[in-house]
Design a protein that fits this description.
Helix content: 55-70%
Distance between the termini: 56 Å
CATH architecture: Up-down Bundle
Number of helices: 11
Order of helices and strands: HHHHHHHHHHHEEEE
Oligomer: single chain
CATH topology: Rhopdopsin 7-helix transmembrane proteins
CATH class: Mainly Alpha
Length: 322
């Protein structure tokens, strides 16, 4: 079924419902975050969470009012309400810090490699700057003709967003996959897989929604269905970041499953793991020390914040069987 045959109000209504549900989920996640992590995280992270909730709540109010304006004022046609235009602006205010947050994690994980911010930061800034330009051009008009004339700008914004979110996910997955070692301890491998699972969900959903919005704009330009798809991007960003922050307890589930002893048959030594939690740059870190009877010891460090995992092995024989 072509989008042209679907009533715009019905598509918008479904998008509004999804937006409201996702906002409710983000409220729950925000509450859980402050309940569990308010004492441990830096003020900057807590301010980021509060900022996202305020922007997403404003986005919710604007989209609900915009839908009401469309229903009341539209006369067998689509009206680009100012509420929808401003709601998309708050989507950009949510997307920018979320993307930069994940880019920062990748940058730290990559050893502060300079190319990471050089690639991702301009793309994130372009999305906000591009939409500000789009908003200025439509500030005093809701003309459908002018709106269509600026579709190329919207395509570029959503295209960059989809590409960046996809790259964030792929880069994070690749860097975590490089750390995968078939000879790792079962619990270590379990922890790594949990972090990889969280990492895959970092930018996948926002990238898919932006991609679908771009496709609908290109294939069915007269349906305006892409506007409805754009309405749900803001709460998806919020839930993605909050899920990464709150998932630290989920990752700890693998960490806490460590126990007992392990024997390395290479040197016939018994190694007992001991743990300690440290704080560095606002991130919780779990350090595991291996003390053996043969005098060899090693260290493995797990960064527990939002799917950042760095493995550092010192003094542990590379060849060992479990």
């Amino acid at each position: 079924m072509a989008w042209d045959g679907i009533e715009q109000a019905e598509v918008e209504y479904v998008a509004i419902l999804v937006n409201n549900v996702l906002w409710g989920i983000s409220c729950t996640q925000t509450f859980l975050y402050f309940l569990h992590f308010r004492k441990n995280d830096k003020n900057l992270i807590k301010a980021l969470v509060l900022w996202l909730w305020i922007c997403d709540t404003t986005h919710l109010i604007l989209t609900n009012r915009g839908f009401w304006v469309d229903i009341v004022l539209s006369d067998n046609g689509f009206i680009v309400s100012q509420e929808y235009l401003w709601a998309s602006f708050f989507t950009c205010l949510v997307a920018l810090p979320c993307q930069l947050f994940f880019v920062y994690r990748i940058w730290i994980f990559a050893g502060k490699f300079w190319l990471i911010p050089m690639i991702f930061v301009p793309a994130s800034v372009y999305q906000l700057a591009g939409y500000i330009a789009f908003l200025v051009m439509n500030y005093k008009t809701i003309s459908i003709a002018q709106f269509y004339s600026l579709q190329k700008l919207l395509k570029s914004i959503w295209g960059v967003s989809a590409v960046e979110d996809t790259l964030i996910t792929l880069v994070l997955f690749y860097m975590l996959w490089k750390q995968r070692d078939g000879e790792l301890l079962g619990q270590t491998s379990q922890l790594l897989y949990r972090v990889m699972f969280i990492g895959i969900n970092t930018g996948t959903w926002t990238a898919l929604v932006a991609l679908f919005a771009l496709i609908t704009m290109t294939v069915w330009p007269n349906s305006m269905a892409f506007v409805s798809l754009n309405l749900v991007i803001s709460p998806i960003y919020c839930n993605t970041l909050l899920a990464n922050l709150n998932a630290r307890d989920y990752i700890r589930g693998a960490r806490d499953s460590y126990g007992g002893t392990m024997t390395g048959t290479n040197t016939h030594m018994t190694m007992t793991p001991s743990f300690r939690i440290t704080q560095q740059d606002g991130m919780e870190t779990l350090e595991m020390d291996m003390e053996s009877q043969a005098g060899s010891n090693g260290a493995t460090m797990f960064d527990q914040s939002s799917a950042n995992l760095k493995l550092e092995n010192e003094g542990v024989p590379k060849t060992r069987t479990m």
